[in-house]
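Extended Data, record Iron ABC transporter permease
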Amino acid sequence: MRRTLSLVALAAAPVVVLTLFFLLPVGGMLARGLWPDGADGGFDPGAALEVLARPRTGRVVWFTVWTSSAATAVAVLLGLPAAYALHRLRWRGRAAVRAALLVPFVLPTVVVGVAFRQLLREGGPLGFLGLDQTPAAIVMGLVFFNVSVVVRTVGAAWEGLDRRPAEAAAALGASPATVFRTVTLPALRPAVASAAGVVFLFCATAFGVVLTLGGVRYASVETEIYLLTTVLYDQAGAAALSIVQLLAVVALLVVTGRLRRVADATVQRVTARPQRPRRADAPQLALTGLLVVALATPIAALVVRSLRDDGRWSLANYTALQTRGDDGLLVVPATTALRNSLQTAVDATWIALLLGLLVAVVLTGRSRSRAERRTRAVLDGFFMLPLGVSAVTLGFGLLVTLGREPLDLRTWPLLVPLAQALVALPLVVRTLVPVLAGIDDRQRQAAASLGAGPLRTALTVDVPVVARPLLASAGFAFAVSLGEFGATSFLSRADHPTLPVVVVRLLGRPGEQNYGMALAAAVVLAATTALVVLAVERLRVPALGAW
């Protein structure tokens, strides 16, 4: 009983935070859809069904499904050759390429959207294709953002495959294509399916990419919720769509979680050094090189365009970040928004690390009684709830529940960092749990038997093992927070915006200076995020593969 009470006490802080800033907002959002007339009205699911029966809602849902499916298929096709080249072969520059392919995953979605606009707009490098503000542009942006998930997830499984079955098939005369189709692919199928499920989930909940690339003609469920809330003021309609998205995301998470467990169970882990490339590996290496060029091209187009002003090379767009734009569009200069973003990211990072470390310790502790096992199982499910809610839904829920009396927290400095910390929390937990779970409990017992107390035992046994993953978690949480836009777009104030919010605001108002400032701000945001991610990659912690 004492151990169970200690477990509950350790979990108290994250439970309280998730209850106040997750369950309460999501519950308020659900109430807006099912009780549209407020507390004085009755339960009315018909109002939500009416929203779902609208022709536009059907088009939005279908657009989300088919663009996410198309982007997932393309990401898998492009990611498989790169996964082989980067995880099964050993060649000069492999580490640098692996780090470069990780950067797109954590780039702010707004930056990705702006970069593709520069690539595909009229007069851009690929403007002759006529793809600007088309569904094809949205699919391209989604693939850019998520192909690294396939590379890391499938590559991690590919590293652990036993080479002997494939070598035996080759020795019997099977061609490389036959070996891949009959031996390798069946072994990788669970990992590929798991990666595809995660990519589809990320595509379906991509907010900034669709918002910037879709224009006014195309909308996903995420952008439709944003439109209904901020433009049409139809909170009941937004809540109804949020309910649908919540159910769909939870179902996807259940499926992908099961696929991931199957992948972990079916892959036989072996220790084998990557082999040197052979002549037959030339196509995979060439495709990997083309993938790197394809991912670098939109960012290069963004950087080049940000350095052009009135047809000449100039830093005018960057110096203009110290102003408030044409006609005083911004309440504060963009440089102030950058400082706000950095401070918000710092706050979100320490909150996510504190909560994530407590959650990881709670989930990986040794259960010595049935009550303790049950308590830990319940807490495990509770702490994973944020995985089932997108950032837009969370931001909308926080807006409608904590933005009015008796609990008006709109001016609370930690409201936005808390929302961003909840978005980053799953990545922190997924990074730390495997590390803590892998520590042999006998080491702790040996330290205790030598007279070390709980604190000394943790400092001696746990801290050296968890230090690098904790630092990597901090970097990823900082990068995610720096570019987070879905929840922040609902919660940030005009006098205290973050840089992604400023970029979208500048893009939404005509004016050459506003447009140039948006490009320069996007480059600054991308560069800051990339530097953080590249520093984290040097720690060699496979956080992304945990998905």
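Summary. The beta strands are 308-309, 312-313, 403-404, 407-408.
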